[in-house]
Design a protein that fits this description.
This is N-acetyltransferase. Pfam families: FemAB_like. InterPro entries: Acyl_CoA_acyltransferase, FemAB-like. The chain has an 11-stranded mixed beta sheet with strand order 2-5-6-8-15-9-14-13-12-11-10. A 4-stranded antiparallel beta sheet has the order 1-3-4-7, sandwiched between helices. Helix 2 packs antiparallel against helix 9. It has 2 domains: 203 residues, 3-Layer(aba) Sandwich (Aminopeptidase); 148 residues, Gcn5-related N-acetyltransferase (GNAT) (Aminopeptidase, 3-Layer(aba) Sandwich), CATH 3.40.630.30. The chain is of the alpha+beta class. The N and C termini lie far apart (56 Å). 40% of the residues are buried. It contains 11 helices and 15 strands. Helices cover 37% and strands 25% of the residues.
């Protein structure tokens, strides 16, 4: 029997609030790699607290496909019209500079991504393979018809990347560092798998923090109080000040996700004599295995008001690692870049993005650049894996 033919109804939405939250989240739950960052609660919080809005250079243009037979959401993607390249973690500043030097405008551009979030996962949510192909084609057609220089899809799944490259988009690869839980019973059990020098260094780092009188408390979900959010936001802003930059997120955003998606949040607070001095916030998603294993923890935000040697490693890595082991989470994604994470058991992992440029000459130049870059990425990852921190 031939499959029934029909055309989806296409929507271009100026706000995530324009799509039904329950339908969006139900579609997300059907994806192979859902993450908490694509939840309607997360994206709508970015919009409602004015972190990702036109005034900050993130104009929502969410693309939706509706099945006309059922009236239900069949596919959707978080798309933004961007006036800059901040908060993306797949760097195209050199491309923008080349456009400028040739008297061409690189901005605005179209970006399919979760703002400020370098996490691999579903970007083109689709109910089935047909809907995925149609959504990928719709994104490319949208870019071709819009007055933009380019379209970029950041950190999609392998399946989504394949659907986009089949339509002529170019693929780019990058490297992150992820920790894998090999069924560890304790932090010491994990340390025992490392080379002696790496194991000794980690123990020394943890000892320095203890000897400085620092203690830690973890707060999960609804246990995170408003005073904790205020303190964490203060730490987060301090980190940006130290880097002479402006924070992407605000206290209202953190409070909002604390209210709407607490089951995905864990905060670490470092204290000396009962006074908080540093904090980190991680996002996690439990696995669906019957024995409670699986799931992923995402290292995201950190900051300190006082300097203590090795405090960053303890607050942002070792405390979350202990949480992963206790909760039987399978993966700890350490975020963008960071070779220093390898000494702490994080291994290189290849990430992907896809790109379309309207200008033929620039598209050809970028294609050659990406071919060379990919070769360098593969050689880099091979070299890193040869020097992994684990016992032979």
């Amino acid at each position: 029997m031939n499959q029934e033919r029909f055309d989806y109804l296409t929507g271009i939405l100026a706000s995530p609030l324009e799509v039904d939250a329950a339908e969006w989240n139900a579609l997300l739950a059907r994806q192979a790699q859902p993450t908490p960052f694509l939840r309607h609660e997360f994206l709508s919080a970015l919009h409602a607290t004015r972190c990702a809005v036109p005034d900050t250079g993130w104009a929502p243009q969410f693309v939706t496909l509706t099945d006309p037979r059922s009236g239900r959401l069949a596919a959707a993607a978080p798309v933004y019209l961007k006036g800059h390249s901040y908060g993306e973690y797949v760097f195209d500043w050199a491309w923008a500079d080349a456009y400028k030097r040739n008297g061409l405008a690189y901005y605005p551009k179209l970006l399919c991504a979760v703002p400020f979030t370098p996490v691999q996962g579903s970007r083109l949510m689709a109910a089935d393979e047909r809907a995925l192909r149609h959504l990928a084609a719709t994104l490319v057609a949208f870019a071709e018809q819009a007055d933009v220089s380019s379209l970029h899809v950041l950190f999609p799944t392998d399946t989504e990347a394949a659907a986009l490259t089949n339509l002529g988009m170019m693929q780019r690869e990058g490297v992150q560092f992820h920790w894998l839980n090999d069924g560890y019973r304790s932090f010491d059990d994990f340390l025992a798998t490392l080379e002696q020098k790496k194991r000794k260094n980690i123990r020394a780092e943890r000892r320095k923090v203890r000897e400085a009188g620092v203690t830690f408390r973890r707060r999960v979900g609804k246990d995170i109080a408003d005073a904790d959010w205020r303190f964490f936001s203060k730490c987060y802003r301090q980190t940006y000040r130290e880097h002479f930059s402006s924070p992407y997120l605000n206290l209202d955003f953190f409070r909002m996700i604390g209210e709407t998606m607490p089951e995905n949040l864990m905060m670490v607070i470092a204290e000396v004599d009962g006074k908080p001095i540093a904090s980190s916030l991680v996002v996690f998603q439990r696995g669906g295995a019957a024995d409670g294993t699986g799931g992923t923890l995402y290292g995201r935000y950190w900051g300190a008001l006082e300097h203590v040697p090795c405090l960053h490693f303890e607050t942002a890595y070792y405390q979350p690692l202990e949480f992963c082991i206790e909760e039987k989470l399978a993966v700890f994604e350490g975020g963008a870049q960071g070779e220093h994470k390898m000494a702490r058991g994080f291994m290189p992992t290849v990430t992907r993005s896809t790109h379309w440029l309207a200008h033929p000459a620039f598209a050809d130049a970028v294609s050659h650049f990406l071919d060379n870059e990919t070769n360098h990425i593969h050689a880099y990852v091979d070299e890193l894996r040869e020097h992994n921190p684990f016992k032979s």
